[in-house]
Amino acid sequence: MSPAPEFTGPDEVEDAFYAAFEAADLDAMMRLWADDETISCVHPGGTRLVGHDEIRESWRQIFGGNMRLRFHLGERRTLTDTNVAVHSVQEEIEVSGQQNLRAVVAATNIYVLTDHGWRIWLHHASNAGTESDEPEADGDEPKPTLH
Prior knowledge:
- The structure is a single chain.
- The protein is of the alpha+beta class.
- A six-stranded mixed sheet has the order 2-1-6-5-4-3, with helices on one face.
- A hairpin with a 6-residue loop joins strand 1 and strand 2.
- The longest helix has 14 residues.
């Protein structure tokens, strides 16, 4: 694994987070997290994961599928202090190659300034509703969880 880049601001880390997510790049994703075993991640409908091992395993499982996701961030709100930044965003997610498979996720990303630049301390995402050109009919299989 290559060394972690040094991010000079929380926006840079956030851009790298969604780029790693879209690329399904586990090593790039894990280089973004703070070197602290109190880091946390909650995926939509999931339990709270704490520490590098649990978080890495969750991303490994997500990236192990064949779905490739594209993100469009909206309704972004930020609060930044000297050492901590909180970003509240709406993730509009679409599955590459599947025009009708979309989801809207509300996410909170907390970044901390470390000795090695800004890093992720928390990613918490919750289902905010779904968008689809075609409603699910009774008896249809539920759409897969995207994140």
